Amino acid sequence: MALTLYQFAISHYSEKVRWALDYKGIRYAPVYLLPGMHVKTIRGLTGQKPTSVPVLVDDQEVIQGSGKILDYLDSRFPATPLLPDEPQSREAALAWERRLDAEAGPAVITFVYHHLLQRPKVMAPLLAAQLPFWNQYLLRLGFSRVDEIMRKRMNINEKTADQSRAKVEALLTEINEIYESGRYLAGDQFSRADITAGALFAPLFLPPQYPVPSPKPERLPPGLKAWHQTSGHLLQPVIARYRKHRRQPSA
Question: Which residues does the chain have with pLDDT short of 50?
Fold first, then answer.
């Protein structure tokens, strides 16, 4: 029986798991959910209050959260490991992953969503990607409410977006110093730390493997367009690692 991954197409934490599955060559069935409408499905799977995605189901096993899922994948499918063998490098990889999950993940979303929410015609297709077309239609009809709820629950506003932009740039600068030296985040070996970096920054460059429609540059909100013009170069080392190691989804 194939594994099943419950996810949002737009979720960069879901992309982290998608990448790990594809990197290991593991076949799985994707189930895409609409943010906000996913609560009943996830609660039914986990039986718990947190309703975050991704959630991986493997027969009777239900694993929630990208880090725990990667732990499970290495335990269940040890071929093509996501961590180095050397203990110090393993700890470095896990430390980078924890830091990026805690800092890069929220910062990227706050910065990107603050601007995309200003363009319902751009944002609605991203939120409803991989779902029947009427989901996008319903989102656009009620987008003012969607905007209000997302900004409140995720504390997204101009001030937090500016703070998040600074955090994104600082993290990218630090990562670039490592990548430009020819190394990976945990030394000489590609690991789950690099998967985490590439996945969590992916909403800023929307690579082909990311299962959402990539807006044309001219349709980007002015704030994002300006950032790409002045600071987009900071993404290039991360993009290079993504292109090198991101396999196509397993058939």
Answer: none
Classify 158 as helix, strand or coil. helix
Total residue count of the chain as it appears in this document: 251
Neighbours of 15 (CB within 10 A): 28
First and final C-alpha spacing in the chain: 14
DSSP string, 42-97: HHHHH-SS---S-EEEETTEEEESHHHHHHHHHHH--SS-SS-SSHHHHHHHHHHH
pLDDT tens digits, one per residue of 75-121: 999 999 999 999 999 999 999 999 999 999 999 999 999 999 999 99
The fold of the 87-245 domain, in CATH, is: Glutathione S-transferase Yfyf (Class Pi); Chain A, domain 2 (1.20.1050)
